[in-house]
Amino acid sequence: MRTFSPFKTTLWYATATPAPDTTRLQGTVDADVCIVGGGYTGLTTALELSQDGFRVVLLEKEEIGFGGSGRNAGHCTPTFTHYSLPELRKMLGEPWAERLIVRQTRANDRVSEMIERYQIQCEWQQNGYVMGASYPGMMKTIEEKVRTYNAVGARTRVLDRGEVETVTGTRRFYGGWLHEEAGHLNPLSYSRGLARAVIQEGGVIHTNSPVTGCQRQGSGWVINTDRGKVLADKVIFATGAYTVGGWPKLDQTFKIQKVFVAATQPLSDDERRSVLPQNTTIHDGRGDIFVYKYNAEGRIVASMFPMGRRGRDMDYTRTVMSDRLKWLHPQIQQDICWEYFWFGELDMQYQTVPRLYDLAPGVVAVTGLSGRGVPTGSMLGGILSEWAKGVPRHDLALKLEPLSVAPFYMSYGPQLALRYYRVSDWIKTKLAGAPLPPHA
């Protein structure tokens, strides 16, 4: 059985708003729709359906937000990471590509609407996202991003060298891509706020209720837990990377990719005036990704992928992160202390977009978010609730497909890709005569 990294040592667990009161499932309950998984995808699906009067029961093996929805870095950028929009259209085909592009690029509209409507206290800041150009040649890629994303209604623009320094507080970028609609938040507080909203709308949530099986019963389904069962017309599995049992081979539809997140001590007021002065989320634009932003206490929260010694040797890992941050922001004079450090798991699949699986009549699952947690999980609730309401499969924004096991190469493919991007970035930066960060 899969084991997952510790949860209660994260910054978010230490600082999140309290969880709503929930209980373990006992006995038998009835529902129109049973949802398995208490992360963003399951919670937003439950919220959409509860708002429309459906009887919803949500089952969570651990506690709300235990998975990626409670341990991610808190970025909420409504984009696609690996593939450009033209590449997605070619890979997914129409109408699926355009439908998914619309949902993903407008996902923050839904996030901000839910936060406002239900008064979710989650440190929500919608001040934008900047991807820096680490060498001059990256500006062509950025200009193409602006063209393609703005063509579908996003608000993005090119920053020149002076503008990007004003926004980010670093002189290391040759320009940048500003996505004005992006934001950041406390991910666990957001999860718990969504759970409160579900309960407010009449939905039922049972935590500490692991699903042990799902069997056909008449025209519906019986979903068994260790101490009870749900009788439902339809079932939605929304357990992502933290899938354990529930449906045969569902945990084989993706491969796990680790990511780590760390948080510094709070920076001084003087440092905050010059480091990320506009409280944006920053991606340093390198193939070896370093993404960072503030939390409400003024801590820098940064994330990277494990690679070689990094992620295994904790002292070395902290040194790498400190050196990268100070290289970007030499105005940080104090020694950096990474007071929180934790790991999360991503459900990776080769398309790097969610896959919607038709498991049986009245049963679906979605996996493969591939690291796009906050906006993607939040918008998936709309798609899954439409399925539950009976929207025809050819009208959904994700294509329903048979369950398929992730190919073997996905066990090592993401790590090889990360190493390729790192080397490619190093070569392009050196050829451009641009400086490289320590440990590049």
UniProtKB/TrEMBL annotation:
InterPro entries: FAD-dep_OxRdtase, FAD/NAD-bd_sf. Transmembrane segments: none annotated. Residues 32-387 form the FAD dependent oxidoreductase domain. Keywords: Oxidoreductase, Plasmid. It comes from the Bacteria. GO terms for molecular function: oxidoreductase activity. It holds the Pfam family DAO. GO terms for cellular component: cytoplasm. This is FAD-binding oxidoreductase.
